[in-house]
Structure formats: structure tokens, C-alpha cells
């Protein structure tokens, strides 16, 4: 636990910030699971970005002669009921998952953190109002809230991002609110108030940097949650509509032919599992990096 | 204890009221006219208008709201326009299935997860610890419906031991359990992963506390330190987080019910959305919210029982 590498200069005239960053980076790299998760997440990101170059076929191209072909030299993971290449569809499917997963969390983080900090900083009526609204949203399990909101908004890509952001917002609000209450009474915030710093400046310069770590950890872990939510919605039939390839859609289509071609569901599901796993290990790694006390916990 | 319980129950009432209001409002802004949904797109204007009148959709919104609350208090969830049945009757039919599934999963998770988590924490970095870490990481990452599909593939298609779909006859114990096995396992494994993980990390936290070192130093037996000092204190976060995960589990139960075509609230809800059956949707959401409020209440009460400090704060 106390393996601070001796080679690191404790005070080599460097600003403390940099040496701390270096120490954290070293801690991250020492954590093999986290490194693996990080690399995996980057690879999946690249997969999504370069999908057109990577996929051997057009994901929508149908080949009536090769339906449910199973694994062949031409189609490594076989073809689906319409003769579409499963591998290509899985590669393209990463786009929807990642776009929705990442952007919904960013949006939820922006709105939720704003709400939580305003509530925590100003207190009184504003706090009661905001946090009651958060309580109400938290009264519904994630998926049930997501299903209900999708029913209102409909399900195209942008609306799904908004839907899942709505689910994420109360989580971020609660997290940042709790953190803020902890920090609000700290000496440096009181000092800043005493010298007459304006509220936005206090929040941005003094409070935000101190809760950023927590937000980053939660955000990374919740990308996994968001991706799972999207897959759930797609599996129910409330996600991005076919023929767009998404992993959830593919699993649902695969279930109909589970006996003849179990590969379709198995591999699409595996993609979801690996992606969520990557973000979970990455998030755990970042937490260990920021908070060395919890290392290995 | 009693005073705390009463206070805590009273506190959850306003939340419940706001939740009910929120559900009412959300269902009112859903796109599409329920009357049109019931009669089909080709219904005549007069028929739609007549049905709207009958459903009370032409009433001012505050009157609809009061009627909604009034009938809820009487246990009346309205009548579904789509199926023509009272919603309460449908809910009563499927609720036992959902409760059974969730309850079994929670039980499964705690009974297996707590001992696994304890042994992983006590024998840190041993084989069992590594197994436990991989298991819980997988459990946190796998979507419930995917796990369900894998179980169906193995235990219903490759080795046809269990039935693939349906919930069986609820009061026929053997049939019920046969149909519960796979969905229960799918959800139970998830809960077990959550429980193992948090048990391990709460115990590790407490093993580092000063009072544990003190107990060791004064020569208290290892076993007694573990049971009296560590476990008792670790129970607090385990119970608190357990409530949180139980709520997550209720969400996942929706997916499991759909994968296994098992009757339940989740299946009722998704069916209601697809048919634009807003009366049913509204009621199911209310029931879910009530379940969550009840779980939170139960968590807090158990919590105050384990940790007497809570009562006074």
C-alpha cells in the first residue's frame, strides 16, 4: 500500500501539481486490471470511430443466399436472418452504444452537477426544491424511469441520449451535492468567501476541482450503466430502431433464431459485456489512483 | 425505535405523494390520445369524443388529478381501456410473480454473497479472493437479459432441464419452482455479485480500523475479532447498500421477466407501453415507486436497528 516509488523526486523544484499527477499516473499503471480496462476502452472507441474501415461488409447489406450461415471464411461470425454479416454489424453497433453511453453521461453530469452544486451552495428553499425533485426521480429504478421517458420522447438517437441523461442527472446531483456539503465548510472555501470572491468563482475555482475526481470516477462507471440501459431499451424494442445495428437490437433479433444460430446473440452480448467491463475496470482504476487508501479494495 | 419508525414512515408519505403527482403528469404528457389508442386510428370522431368523455379525459386536469388520487386511496387502479379489465386485478395477478422473483434473488445474493465476500476479505489475494473479484466484476457488467439468454441456452436448449418460458401456476409449488429456477438464478447471480463486492470492501475497510488492531493487540481470539468487532460493524454498509441494490434489482427484474416471458410487473409495463395502455402504465409505475419507497423504508429501519446511533441524528 505504501509503495511510493523511491525514484520519484519528492521535491525537485517541480510544482506540486505535476508530481502529484505523475504519482497518480504511476499508481494507475501499477494497477494491471485498470490498465487493461483503459486499453480495452480505447480499443472499443477506435472500433467505433473506424467502423467503416474495419468492418468487412456493409452492415445493412443483405445476402439472401447466405442466411444464418454460421461461421464461415467469408463471414467469421456468420450471418443473421437477413444474410447480413454479424461481425460488421457488431463493429457498427459499437457506435450507437458508445455515443449514447458517453454523451448521455456527459449531459447528465453537466446538468446534475450544476443542480447539486447550486442546491448545496445556496441551501434553503432552492436546496429543498432541487433535492426533492432528485428524490422523486430516484424513486424509480433506472430502467423503469428510462422506459417511461422513452415512451414520452420516442426513441431516436438524440432522444435516447436525453432519456438516459435524465436517468443520470439525479445520480450526479446527489453525488455533487453530498461532496459539496463536505467541502463547503472547509477553510479554503470560507477563506475565499472572506476575501470577497464571487460565488461562480468559488464554485469553479475552489469547489469543482475538489469534487472533480469523484465525478470522473462516477462518470466512467456510469458510462457502463448507460450502455447497459441503452442495450436494455433496445432489447425491449424501445431503442434506436432497426435496421440500424445496435447490440441490443442484434440480441433481440438473435433470440428468435437462438436454436439455429446462437452466435448472433452470444457475440453481440459479449460485446456489451466487454465494453461495460472495460469502463468498470477503468473507473475502479481511476478511483484507486485518486484515492490511494482504497487501493485493491 | 418505535418513535423513529413512526417518524420515518411519516417522512416517506410526502415523497410518495410527489411521486404519484409526477407519474400522473408524465402519463398526461405522453404522446397520443388514449381514446384513439383504444379505438384504433379509424374510429369516428364521435366515438373518440364519447370515450374521452367516459374516461374523464375532458375534465379539467385538477379534477382528473383528484379523481386519480381518490381512487388510488380506495385501491382502485382504474380500468384498462385496451383490455377492458380492472388494472388492480391484473396487478394482483402478476405482482406475486415479481415479488417472488425479486425476493428469491435477494435471498440468494445474501446467503451466498456474504460468506464469499467475508472469506475473500479475510484471505486477501488468495485464490478465492481473485475468483471473487472476477465474479463480481462480471456480475456488475453483465446485462440481466444477456445472462438470462445464456442460462436459457445452456439449461433449457442444450440441456433441456428447465422450461424456457412462462411463470407456471403460482400456487402449484413444483411447477412454480421449476419456472422460477432460471430467472431466479439470473437475477440471484447479479445480486450475489453486488453483495460479495460490497461485503469484501466493507470488511477490508473495517479491518483497518484502530479498534480492530487494538482487539488483536490485547490478544482477542481471531474468530471473536471477526464476529464481534468486524462483522457487526460491516453489517451497516452491507444493509445500507443492500437496499440500494435491491432497487437496482427491481429494475433488472423487468428484463428477466421479458427474456423468460414470465408474468410480472415488468412485462405488464412494457406491454402497456407498446399498446399505449396508459391506465395500466400509470398504475404499474405507481406500484414500482411504492415498492422502492418500501424498500428504502425497510432499509432505514433495519439500519437503525443495527446502528443505534442513527435514531438520534
List keywords for this structure.
heterodimer, A: 297 residues, mainly alpha, MetI-like fold, 72% helix, B: 313 residues, 13 helices
List the total number of helices of chain A.
11
The helix-and-strand class of chain B reads mainly alpha
Q: How many strand elements of chain A?
A: 0
Total domain count of chain A: 1
End-to-end distance of chain B: 13 Å
State the shape of chain A.
Answer: elongated
N-to-C CA distance of chain A? 11 Å
Helix content of chain B: over 70%
Q: Stretches of chain B where pLDDT falls below 50 for ≥5 residues?
A: none
Quaternary organisation: heterodimer
CATH architecture of chain A: Orthogonal Bundle
Low-confidence stretches of chain A: none
In DSSP terms (H or I, runs of 4 or more residues), the helix count of chain B works out at 13
The CATH class of chain A turns out to be: Mainly Alpha
- Sheet of most strands of chain A: none
Q: Spell out the CATH superfamily of chain A.
A: MetI-like
- Form type of chain B: globular
Give the biggest sheet of chain B.
Answer: none
CA radius of gyration of chain A: 23 Å
Strand-residue proportion of chain B: under 5%
Question: What structural category do the secondary elements of chain A indicate?
Answer: mainly alpha
How would you sum up this structure in a few lines?
The complex is a heterodimer of chains A (297) and B (313). Chain A is an all-alpha fold.
Describe the protein.
The complex is a heterodimer of chains A (about 300) and B (about 325). Helices cover about 70% and strands about 0% of the residues of chain A. In chain A, about 45% of the residues are buried. Chain A has a single domain, classed as MetI-like fold. Chain A is mainly α and about 300 residues long. With about 325 residues, chain B is an all-alpha fold. Chain B is built from 13 helices and no strands. In chain B, helix 5 packs across helix 8 (about 175-205), helix 5 packs antiparallel against helix 10 and helix 11 runs antiparallel to helix 12 (about 280-305). The longest helix of chain B is centred in the C-terminal third of the chain and has 38 residues, at about 220-260.
Amino acid at each position: 500500500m505504501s509503495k511510493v516509488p523511491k525514484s520519484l523526486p519528492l521535491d525537485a523544484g517541480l510544482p506540486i501539481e505535476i508530481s502529484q499527477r505523475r504519482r497518480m499516473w504511476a499508481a494507475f499503471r501499477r494497477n494491471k486490471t485498470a490498465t487493461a480496462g483503459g486499453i480495452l476502452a480505447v480499443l472499443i472507441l477506435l472500433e467505433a470511430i473506424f467502423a467503416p474501415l474495419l468492418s468487412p461488409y456493409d452492415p445493412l447489406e443483405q445476402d439472401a443466399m447466405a442466411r444464418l450461415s454460421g461461421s464461415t471464411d467469408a463471414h467469421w461470425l456468420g450471418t443473421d436472418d437477413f444474410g447480413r454479416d454479424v461481425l460488421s454489424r457488431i463493429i457498427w453497433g459499437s457506435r450507437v452504444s458508445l455515443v449514447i453511453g458517453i454523451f448521455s453521461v456527459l449531459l447528465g453530469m453537466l446538468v446534475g452537477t450544476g443542480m447539486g452544486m447550486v442546491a448545496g451552495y445556496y441551501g434553503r428553499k432552492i436546496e429543498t426544491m432541487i433535492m426533492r425533485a432528485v428524490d422523486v426521480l430516484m424513486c424509480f429504478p433506472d430502467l423503469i424511469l428510462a422506459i417511461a421517458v422513452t415512451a414520452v420522447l420516442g426513441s431516436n438517437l438524440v432522444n435516447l441520449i436525453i432519456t438516459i441523461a435524465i436517468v443520470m442527472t439525479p445520480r450526479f446531483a446527489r453525488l455533487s451535492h453530498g461532496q459539496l456539503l463536505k467541502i463547503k465548510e472547509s477553510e479554503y472555501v470560507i477563506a475565499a468567501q472572506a476575501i470577497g470572491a464571487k460565488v461562480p468563482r468559488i464554485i469553479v475555482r475552489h469547489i469543482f476541482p475538489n469534487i472533480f475526481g469523484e465525478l470522473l470516477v462516477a462518470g466512467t462507471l456510469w458510462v457502463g450503466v448507460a450502455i447497459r440501459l441503452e442495450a436494455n431499451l433496445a432489447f425491449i424494442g424501445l431503442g434506436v430502431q432497426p435496421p440500424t445495428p445496435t447490440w441490443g437490437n442484434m440480441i433481440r433479433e438473435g433470440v428468435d433464431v437462438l436454436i439455429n444460430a446462437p452466435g448472433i446473440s452470444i457475440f453481440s452480448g459479449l460485446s456489451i459485456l466487454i465494453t461495460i467491463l472495460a469502463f468498470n475496470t477503468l473507473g475502479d482504476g481511476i478511483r484507486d489512483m485518486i484515492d490511494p487508501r482504497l487501493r485493491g479494495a | 425505535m418505535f418513535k423513529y419508525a413512526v417518524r420515518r414512515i411519516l417522512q416517506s408519505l410526502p415523497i410518495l405523494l410527489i411521486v404519484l403527482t409526477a407519474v400522473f403528469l408524465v402519463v398526461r404528457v405522453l404522446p397520443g390520445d388514449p381514446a384513439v389508442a383504444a379505438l384504433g386510428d379509424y374510429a369516428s370522431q364521435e366515438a373518440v369524443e364519447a370515450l374521452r368523455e367516459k374516461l374523464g379525459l375532458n375534465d379539467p386536469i385538477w379534477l382528473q388529478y383528484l379523481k386519480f388520487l381518490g381512487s388510488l386511496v380506495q385501491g382502485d387502479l382504474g380500468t384498462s381501456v385496451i383490455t377492458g379489465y380492472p388494472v388492480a386485478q391484473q396487478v394482483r395477478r402478476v405482482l406475486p410473480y415479481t415479488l417472488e422473483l425479486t425476493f428469491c434473488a435477494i435471498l440468494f445474493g445474501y446467503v451466498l454473497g456474504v460468506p464469499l465476500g467475508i472469506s475473500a476479505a479475510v484471505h486477501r489475494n488468495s485464490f478465492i479472493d481473485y475468483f471473487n473479484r472476477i465474479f463480481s466484476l462480471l456480475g456488475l457488467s453483465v446485462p440481466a437479459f444477456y445472462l438470462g439468454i445464456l442460462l436459457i441456452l445452456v439449461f433449457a436448449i442444450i440441456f433441456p432441464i428447465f422450461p424456457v418460458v412462462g411463470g407456471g401456476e403460482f400456487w402449484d409449488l413444483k411447477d412454480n419452482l421449476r419456472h422460477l429456477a432460471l430467472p431466479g438464478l439470473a437475477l440471484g447471480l447479479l445480486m450475489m455479485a453486488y453483495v460479495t463486492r460490497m461485503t469484501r470492501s466493507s470488511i477490508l475497510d473495517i479491518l483497518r480500523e484502530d479498534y480492530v488492531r487494538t482487539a488483536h493487540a490485547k490478544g482477542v481470539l481471531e474468530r471473536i475479532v471477526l464476529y464481534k468487532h468486524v462483522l457487526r460493524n460491516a453489517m451497516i454498509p452491507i444493509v445500507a447498500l443492500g437496499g440500494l441494490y435491491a432497487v437496482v434489482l427491481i429494475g433488472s427484474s423487468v428484463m428477466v421477466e421479458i427474456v423468460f416471458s414470465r408474468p410480472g410487473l415488468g412485462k405488464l409495463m412494457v406491454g402497456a407501453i407498446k399498446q399505449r395502455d396508459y391506465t395500466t402504465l400509470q398504475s404499474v409505475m405507481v406500484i414500482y415507486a411504492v415498492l422502492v419507497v418500501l424498500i428504502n423504508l425497510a432499509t432505514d429501519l433495519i439500519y437503525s436497528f443495527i446502528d443505534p446511533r442513527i435514531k438520534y441524528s
